[in-house]
Amino acid sequence: MRSPDPQLDQALIEAAVTELVQVGYARLTTAAVARRAGASTASLYRRWPSKHALVAEAATRLAEQALHPADTGSLTGDLTSLLQQKHAAVAGETGIALVSLVGQSAHDPELARTLHEAVFGLTRTHIATILDRAAARDELADGLDRDVFADLVIGAVLAPLVDRWSTDRDAADNPASLTTAAGTSGTDPSTSTGALAAARMLALAATR
């Protein structure tokens, strides 16, 4: 039986993310991922039976890069922490890879389910924790629809990605072109006042 090799697993995941950045999901091949990782295609398929399974694992790893939001003592503070951490997590190559996956998911129901579970599901768990804290502090408005509120927060998380995508007309055909925009924007999402402004607006909608 093959011994586990976490280093090779990680190398293959990193290679998959790089391929997503360079060519997008539709053009990604398992052969190219294996070659970039310095591994055989057979070793890749022993770990993941398909391209979709590999990308699903990569998406899960990307989503897990975001830390659990801090307990700051207020709904506004918790939402600010969440948005800053999520924006930092999707900056650079991580964000480009996720943009590629989100775009492809519109045409791939199986990939859409994977993203919903791995990326959006984790974010919804974080939001639920934040709302539970706010409820314990008696901050929440009566009758708040938590599902709708979670949708609004996820929209705020994705907004920087959508903005980067829409400002580059070539991005649909060349995801790597977003790298230039990300590197020259001069904005650090993890410290941007935009996260605080968005958090304040969201908190206003949810509180008494």
TrEMBL record:
Ranges of residues in domain HTH tetR-type: 6-66
Query: Which ranges does the entry annotate as DNA-binding region?
Result: 29-48
Q: Which GO terms describe its molecular function?
A: DNA-binding transcription factor activity; transcription cis-regulatory region binding
Q: Which Pfam families match?
A: TetR_C_11, TetR_N
Q: Coiled-coil segments, which residues?
A: none
Using the UniProt annotation, give all residue ranges assigned to the region (Disordered). Answer: 169-193
Keyword Transcription regulation among UniProt keywords: yes
The family database entries (InterPro entries) matched by this protein are listed as: DNA-bd_HTH_TetR-type_CS, Homeodomain-like_sf, HTH-type_TetR-like_transc_reg, HTH_TetR, Tet_transcr_reg_TetR-rel_C_sf, TetR_C
Keywords from the UniProt entry: DNA-binding, Transcription, Transcription regulation
Would the keyword Zinc be found if you checked this record's keyword annotation? no
Composition-biased stretches (Low complexity): 176-193
- This protein is called HTH tetR-type domain-containing protein
Give the source species.
Answer: Cellulomonas soli
